[in-house]
Amino acid sequence: MRRVLVLWVVICLAVAACAAEENESKAEDRVKAAGTVLDEIQSAPDQGIPEDVLASAECVAVVPTMLNGGFIVGARYGRGVASCRTPKGWSAPAFFVVTGGSFGLQIGGQAVDLVMLIMNNEGMKNLLSSKFKLGADASVAAGPVGRNASANTDWKLRAQVLSYSRSRGAFAGLELTGAVVKQDKSSTKDFYGRMVPFKTSLKGMIDAPANAYPFLNTLAKWAKSAADK
Question: Residues 90-130: pLDDT tens digits?
Fold first, then answer.
């Protein structure tokens, strides 16, 4: 009986370890996918985020479309990663969940890639709070699109957060009023092996692990390119 009990405990521990490894893999995949999404969007001629908008963003958040845990429009639910500027460069990624909101006809029933740019200190304060509502706690607007599209807009005065969507190759500003953004605690624990508060990662209080760089290197590349224009 004792041997059976010991065997059962070993099996349970093995299953738990496998589940933890699988969850960590999903978090890593989301980081890689976020880098891919940003790279594809900014590589599209005259269709990406304007350089001066990206160069002015305090933080960049991406929800990539994924087979598991991606942005499901019908349920108005998505999981993504964010990074903010720090004196040492872009911060270690923070994992978040976005739910609800008025997505309207811009998305329809399609799964999309979602990009949010936090444009100023007030927007960053809301992001660091680990939970805020777009349109209530933080003003939000559909972002301008195209390399030179921002020249004739008042985006600097309009919103703390600018949002974008990409579906079937079409990239456009997205209205996200009413959406709630909060920390994805399970993905955070899976990725870091412990709970890391939003402020700790996004303010640069911890070093980014090696598996964060598929996203951070891509973000740094395009942010530098935008700043140099």
Answer: 999 999 988 776 554 444 455 678 898 998 888 888 788 87
**Alpha helices (H) along 176-212:** 185-192, 198-202
Nearest to 102 by CA among 38, 13, 180: 180
* From 32-41, 138-147, 158-167, the region with the lowest mean pLDDT: 138-147
Q: Give the C-alpha separation, 229 to 225, whole Å.
A: 7
Going from N- to C-terminal start, the domains of the chain cover 16-228
Strand partners, 170: 167
Round to whole Å and give the CA distance between 76 and 120: 26
Alpha carbon 33 to its chain's center: 10
* Mode of pairing for the β-strands spanning 161-167 and 140-142: parallel
C-alpha–C-alpha distance, residues 1 and 5, integer Å: 6
Full-model pTM? 0.79
For tokens 């087979």, the residue is: 67
Rounded distance between C-alpha atoms, residue 206 and residue 83, angstroms: 12
CB atoms within 10 A of CB 161: 28
Residue 218 or 66, more confident: 218
